[in-house]
Design brief:
Elements lengths: L3 H29 L5 H27 L19 H28 L3 H31 L3 H14 L5
Helix pairs in contact: 1-2, 1-3, 2-5, 3-4, 4-5
Pfam families: Ferritin
Function: Iron-storage protein.
Subcellular location: Cytoplasm
């Protein structure tokens, strides 16, 4: 059984995952209308789907543990970006914020001696390590490329194959 404080904290994470999904959906839509960024757009659509799955997994866990998983109200995410690099910079910032939130949840689970929640959250810890690695690496690649059109072309072409590759 979840404590009220753990339920509230997990529901806050549900909201964060939903906000992530919305933010990446907005990035996908923005990149979809930029010339030649169909790979980037597909990447962000996939990221949005993954974040939604993370949210649903949390809601199911909360409900299975005797709590009530809340469907959150969401604010409008950033809709436009000055550059591809700025979109990916936001992507990294967002992933770092999510990682910090997951770490706080793990800390709370341990403090409450809620080992079932602690065990459940280990999947999120591992997932965030991967998400941060991907976001950092893609930001580094964009930094190297700068505004070089051929580099951006290759970045867009290669981004979908990148997911899950070793660094």
């Amino acid at each position: 059984m979840l404590s009220k404080t753990m339920q509230d904290a997990l529901n806050k994470q549900v909201q964060m995952e939903a906000e992530s999904s919305q933010a990446y959906l907005a990035m996908a839509s923005w990149s979809d209308i930029q010339p030649g960024l169909q790979g980037v757009s597909a990447f962000f659509y996939k990221q949005s789907e993954e974040e939604r799955m993370h949210m649903l997994k949390l809601i199911s866990f909360i409900n299975e543990r005797g709590g009530f998983g809340m469907v959150p109200a969401l604010e409008q995410p950033i809709l436009t970006f000055v550059s591809l690099q700025s979109a990916f910079s936001e992507f990294l910032k967002h992933e770092l914020k999510v990682s910090n939130s997951i770490n706080e949840l793990v800390h709370q689970a341990l403090a409450e001696k809620d080992y079932a929640t602690h065990n459940f959250l280990q999947w999120y810890v591992t997932e965030q390590m991967e998400e941060e690695r991907v976001a950092r690496t893609l930001n580094e690649k964009l930094e190297m490329i700068g505004e070089d059109k051929s580099g951006l072309y290759l970045f867009d072409r290669d981004i979908m194959a990148y997911r899950g590759q070793p660094s």
